[in-house]
Design a protein that fits this description.
It is built from 20 helices and 22 strands.
Length: 589
Amino acid sequence: MGDSVSGLGCCGGSASESCSDEINDNSSFVARVLVIEDGAVSAKAICLQLTQLGYIVAGVFASGEEALSRVCELAPDVVVMDIGLAGKLDGVDTAEQIHRLYDVPVVYLTSATDDATFQRAKLTNPLAWLEKPVSLETLHRGLRMALYQRELYRKLRISEAKYRRIVETMSEGLVILDAEYRIIFANSRFQSQIQCDSEGCFNFFFPSMLSADTAEYLLDQIAHLDDSGKIVVDGYLRSAGGGELPVRFSVASWGGTGEICHCEIADRHGYICVVNDMSAQRASELARREAENRYRTLFESVLDGVYQSLPDGRFLEVNPAMAAMFGYDSPSAMIMEVGDISTQLYADPADRALFLDVLRENGRVSRHQVRMKKRNGEVIWVELSAHAVCNEDDEILSVEGMLFDITERKLTEQDLRRRASRDDLTGLYNRVYFREWFDNALVLATRNTNRLGLLYVDLNDFKKVNDMFGHMAGDKVLREVAVRLRDCVRESDMVARIGGDEFCVALEGLHSSEDAMRVAMEINQTLSRPLKLNDTEVSVGASLGVAIFPDDGMVAEDLLGRADTAMYKAKQDGAGVMFWRALGKRVAS
């Protein structure tokens, strides 16, 4: 057990006062001290003097085991430790565990002076070694130094952790080399780049990790590197798996000036090397070149027209397909001859102005169909898609687009639309198109407060013609009826075949019901005249039902139903023509 420290009080009150003043002058912080001392008298004396010095005694223990069980709870700022303690653990063993488990600084206060004990104690990283007996002022200075060093170590650990975190989270690899180009540090990113752990690359000869050409060039550049400079070299880094990674090396030198301190090489020269993975950039550059080659190949060989033009109407570039489409001998000939796209290529120059307006507003035009003209004046339909290349002020610098000839498709679409809306046999509009047209006509008549007449026409003896002469003769009759119906109405009126021998006639812009009556009577008389079938004349006749908008209904279903009902009443009564409003009366014969 260590000697008594009761003699600490011999320094008198002046030392105590000066030490207390120093504490008060330097900081308002009051340290908590844990005392581990086997001797009761010594422990009491230490506690008394610590109190006099302004410290808080967090606890007093005679054994290391007891102290270790309470360190976490008492949370001391510093431990005053004797070497000789009660129990199985001596002061050195106890200090080692306190340092390892709780990171609390230890100040040895002991009478042990043998070198073996001192060497053991050094390994526990104590902040002071004070030999008994010790003056109060020396004790105070030792504790203050211990607390000061503790704060320095704390700040150092924070700084070290911060910069280690920065180094370890870098997206680039980082290696530190000694003067012989051996690795003395490598961050995680570099270890990943070479597919090796830190132990596997530590003290490794860095140039051996590079391709031969890279190593030779890098070392040559480093040889000309001064202390304040930096070099940047592109090359290849070899991985443990045998592959080569394209990288960019940024190398700077460091010397033994305190810039870097790593073990025993603090006074030596070396290099800091940042290794940036260039795989993505190389791949991007390669992809760009390949894309340019593909674009050029496509541009030259694609069958659709591809072009680049200026907003003022001049071409910058056209491909061969574009030139051929418009009848020019070559792309260069088209570029030279076409000085104004609007007047030389557009069938209607206004379409070009509209195209540019949409392009300015949206930045692109997609699947725009427009009529254009070839060099010889022939008009063609094209489908055009383009986008604008703009500057920072959103002004159009150029237009890049693609177009292809859809003339044949357009003509086919027009024919299909005609077929879809027409009756194949008579050439009149069919039932579907008539209903769509009639709905729109009612909207316009409502808006303009006009009358609209609807005539429902049904042939009387058509079945007899089919039965006597066959369906081909019947078809001929239907075609002739269609011609006669069209001859009885205006160009703006609608005539449609809506069934086998049923027709509808819609009359727009009527001034009165009498206008509808006049047309109905004319149709009835016209269809009553015989029709010639080869050498035979036949008569079919017709029955007509008439409904007037808005007198007889406001919606299409009502008007169609009432005209149909009037027609059947006319057929039943043999009246020829029957108005819905006069149903039950024969209006005409």
